[in-house]
Request: fold
Amino acid sequence: MPSSGIIDLAIGLIFVFAVTAALSSAVTELVARLLGLRGAYLLTGLRELVDGGNVSTDLGQAQTAYLEMRDMVRGTKVPRSRRR
Reply:
């Protein structure tokens, strides 16, 4: 069966790009897990959805923010930002 150089080149390039994408994705995921960026981005996204506007996330305050949000959802406590 005759082989076409263009088809072989296309298959080779697709393979190389697929492997490169998989490796870069794995490295990015590893770095994000080690630095704790996934949690920070998730918390920032959730706070932006709930609070709206500009939101900054300090991971040192993450537990306090979580407890306040949990209490607010349960209806047991008024959040600090809403107190008068």
Observations:
- The chain has three helices and no strands.
